[in-house]
Amino acid sequence: MVPLSWYLIFAAALFSIGLFGVLSRRNAVAxxxxxxxxxxxxxxxxxxxxxxxNTANMMGQVFAIIVFAVAAAEVAVGLALVISVYRRRNTxxxxxxxxxxx
Amino acid sequence: MTGEQITFLVVxxxxxxxxxxxxxxxxxxxxxxxxxSTLFGVAVTYAVLxxxxxxxxxxxxxxxxxxxxxxxAVMLTRKDMRDQGPQMNKNxxxxxLLSVSTFGGLYFxxxxxxxxxxxxxxxxxxxxxxxxxxxxxxxxxxxxxxxxVASVLLVAALVGAVxxxxxxx
Amino acid sequence: MSFWNDPLKVAADWLMGIFTGWGMPEIAAQIxxxxxxxxxxxxxxxxxxxxxxxxxxxVVSRFQDxxxxxxxxxxxxxxxxxxxxxxxxxEDTTPGGADRVVYNVAPMLSxxxxxxxxxxxxxxxxxxxxxxxxxxxxxxxxxxxxxxSIIMAGWSSNNKFALIGAFRQVAVMVSFEVPMxxxxxxxxxxxxxxxxxxxxxxxxxxxxxxxxxxxxxFLIAAxxxxxxxxxxxxxxxxxxVSGYNIEYSGxxxxxxxxxxxxxxxxxxxxxxxxxxxxxxxxxLEQVNPVLAIAVIVFKAFVGYWIIMWVKxxxxxxxxxxxxxxxxxxxxxxxxxxxxVTALMNALLAGSPDWLRxxxxxxxxxxxxxxxLEIARSHSRKEREKVEGVKQVVExxxx
Lengths: 102, 169, 398
What we know:
The complex is a heterotrimer.
Chain A: H1 4-24, H2 28-52, H3 59-89
Helix pairs in contact in A: 1-2, 2-3
Chain B: H1 3-24, H2 28-48, H3 52-76, H4 92-111, H5 129-138, H6 144-165
Helix pairs in contact in B: 1-2, 2-3
Chain C: H1 7-21, H2 26-63, H3 79-88, H4 100-115, H5 135-156, H6 160-191, H7 196-201, H8 207-210, H9 212-226, H10 237-240, H11 250-275, H12 289-311, H13 319-347, H14 353-397
Helix pairs in contact in C: 1-2, 2-11, 3-11, 4-5, 4-11, 5-6, 6-9, 6-13, 9-11, 11-12, 13-14
């Protein structure tokens, strides 16, 4: 029998790894990879609470599906922005994209 | 150590290991492929949690679309086929400190909660999670409004992404 | 229950008795029996795959008015074995700048994505891998893994043409998943569940009679997913020097090639399960599981024959035409068909069978006719534009 705490700690660890990726990577696409890890950890939390709570109440799974949709939308727009920035500035290193249009 | 616990430990270690490789490897295409294995580990976690529909949707949406989008974006934004120098910015130690303290804080918060050692109740037989999920998503007393809003969000993201990335010659 | 009624359960019980007799704990015995079942299935599939190589070469040769392999064994039946031996003894090269791990894993993933599809195929009422109640969605998930393996193969080969071929193939596969997923929902609506065995159980009347346009769109989308002609822009030998598998030789190429043939056969099987009744044939399957297996294998071969027929008859389509065809024609028609089917199914809920079949068949035909008329009017306008320019040019010359 797996206690609920194991799932929550697993999700917390995945979230921290994603946070590390967002805070320490130079490449903009790598930052988006970290954001994906964080969104997945949130989903694991939601589904674990659905399973260990009242399984007849589908709110956990519905919320997880909405998070799927939001993550997909955010990745699409985020990567479109990164590609557009690459076309103008010829770089995707986050530190070098630091000047507005002059 | 029951079979379930061993299964969960194997899956969790696989996912966390792949996640760690995502954020530390220098080659970005490898990072995207490690993301694929992390997402697959998360899908297996959903299957272990008896959310079979979510597991399959995770593979279809995340691995089949989002991970491929990442691989395309990595390939379209590199100046040549080699790697581009150090991948960590100069304050990475602070990021590491912050993430370790976040994990520590979450762990500490969880200890104070009483429902922590709850074990899973058995799912009543004849419970069709897929049918219940379908009902919940379209029934007016349940979650049809977030469902419709999510579809509007996806249309907005579709139009926005095409417009932003369009190559006007 | 005798062996013929429920072979898998009888075999599993017998093996379980043997293993626990040797002192193995029950859970380890269960896992071992599961693995043995998977191993037997994969061995049979690989044997079938070898046979498919022979079938493919004989059929293509008849389409091209020649005889095909007939030297090695009677009717060339041992030819595939000779091919496999040749591939096995070839040198196992890895290109210079290639990414070794990704390069070697890609063919394995490609073969894996085909083999895992057979976990949900019901071969008989009692012989099936696992009765997932989301079987239809599982097909798309396995296709997603196949897509990933192609892009891994194309990128890791360190070769421009491989990369272009892989990009095109992945763009086509991701695009054609949309009409395929929509058409998978049509048997789901009729059967009330996405599970493969439930879909077969509910096909007292074959679903192709309810929705012929759905079957057709599913076939077109499946051929595009497989990467076979006329949608094989990515690996056309004359255009792109065989695309993502340029740098692969020996058994790794063999895995791609054999995987593609088995994938085509598997989709022939799925087409017959979803629309043509699967292992059902007027009650024949209740007699004996072996007859049920024979029925479904026969129907899968008919589907595979149609896929081969399309491949060796039609010309290759250009990549931008392919994508335009999907997004401007196939996807709107698929969505409209789904809405019409759902509406008609709800309206006709209590009616007698013949009325339902007639109305749904008619609605499909009407929708197809409307879609073709719209496409025709578009092409007429395009042609008039080109004709108008030609007339202006000719008038300027005179």
